[in-house]
Write a structure and sequence with these properties.
This protein has 365 residues and is α/β, with parallel strands linked by helices. The protein has 11 helices and 17 strands.
């Protein structure tokens, strides 16, 4: 192992020169012993370049200390430097040699990490390599479980079929987000870690003392993130009984703001509005069910206090149609609506987005 040996006080000056000439061997660590440092040098470095580097080092070290020593040392096997542990920079790096370049290019490189669980999407023609892809994903993410998507999100309960391709078959995990802990079963409930920024943004816009309705709460990420910081009353509704079970667990798992309260209700939001929420109004309403939210827009407007805010989400190629729907439904109820903001939350499919439209609803004067 070829190294440059210098006094410890001259290690950094020498290292900078070796770095400048791009001859440092990154596979090994600098070794320090008996007052000297050994800087690893690439074995293919030519004698002429090595001599040039040594002369530059001597010149630099002389400025710092006239009593310098510098020499090239070829360490024997017993004195070899400690190797640097290198981690793969991507799943595709781990799959080289197992999949062709074309297959690696086709493989979707994004995945969702939910606690100790990873959910990947694999093109149908690459499913023959699902075990290799699963093991590579497990190694790269250092999680415990890797599932492959077997279907799209389906039905009002918003669940999808998953297949284990690596690790433990344990769909129950705890996901950490913005200082909260969210327990869930990825096979029986819907949860997207990609909405973390959106949840934080809604939390920051919320004021203490608000009455809030989450019409499609799931396991409660919006309510939990909001109530952790804000003293609010939140009514969280979902039709999926598994989601409500975990929502109640998450309320117990997290320390909420001193005067925050979350009420979980299992049921269809339309029916809950007629019964448990009869004659009740809200300052803020969250409608994060982009596939079905348009069907509930009229109900949301009817449940909104004068001056209340609705966070409306839908799948669309832009904002025009969503804004038009909001304005039309408000007009049908003799109310005014002000569009506060619009944004693309995440991509959905080609030229389609999960979009958000925030609007303020007021009674016509």
């Amino acid at each position: 192992m070829l190294t440059i040996k210098i006094p410890v006080q001259n290690i950094e000056a020498t290292r900078q020169i070796v770095l400048k000439h791009k001859i440092i061997d990154y596979d090994y660590k600098i070794k320090v012993e008996n007052g000297f440092g050994h800087i690893p040098v690439k074995k293919e470095t030519g004698d002429e370049l090595l001599s040039k580097v040594i002369e530059e080092c001597k010149e630099e070290i002389t400025k710092q200390n006239n009593n310098y020593t510098i020499e090239i040392i070829d360490l024997n096997q017993e004195e070899d430097l400690e190797t640097v542990k290198r981690f793969p920079r991507s799943i595709t790096e781990l799959l080289k040699g197992k999949l062709t370049e074309e297959e690696i290019e086709e493989l979707k490189k994004s995945f969702d990490i939910i606690g100790d669980v990873v959910i990947v999407e694999i093109p149908e023609k690459l499913e023959v390599h699902k075990k290799e892809i699963g093991e590579a994903t497990l190694q790269f993410t250092k999680r415990k479980t890797v599932y492959m998507k077997k279907s799209a999100v389906q039905g009002v309960t918003r669940t999808r079929e998953l297949e284990l391709i690596a690790g433990e078959d344990n769909p129950i995990t705890i996901h950490k987000e913005h200082g909260t802990r969210l327990k869930l079963d990825v096979k029986n409930v819907y949860f997207s870690p990609r909405l973390a920024t959106e949840r934080k943004r809604v939390q920051e816009e919320t004021n203490d003392g608000e009455e809030i309705l989450d019409m499609f709460a799931g396991i409660g990420p919006f309510p939990i993130v909001i109530a952790k910081e804000k003293n609010v009353n939140i009514t969280a509704v979902d039709i999926n009984e598994h989601a409500i079970k975990y929502l109640n667990e998450n309320i117990r798992l997290n320390k909420l703001a001193p005067n925050a309260h979350i009420t979980a209700i299992c049921g269809d939001t339309n029916e809950v509005a007629k019964n448990e929420l009869k004659d009740k109004k809200f300052d803020r309403i969250i409608m994060n069910l982009p596939g079905l939210a348009p069907e509930f827009l009229s109900l949301a407007i009817s449940l909104c206090n004068d001056g209340g805010v609705i966070h409306y989400y839908e799948f669309s190629d832009g904002f025009f149609h969503g804004m038009e729907k909001v304005q039309r439904e408000a007009e049908n109820q003799n109310k005014d609506v002000e569009i506060l903001s619009t944004r693309k939350v995440k991509s959905y499919k080609t030229r389609m987005w999960h979009v958000a439209i925030d609007c303020k609803v007021t009674e016509k004067k």
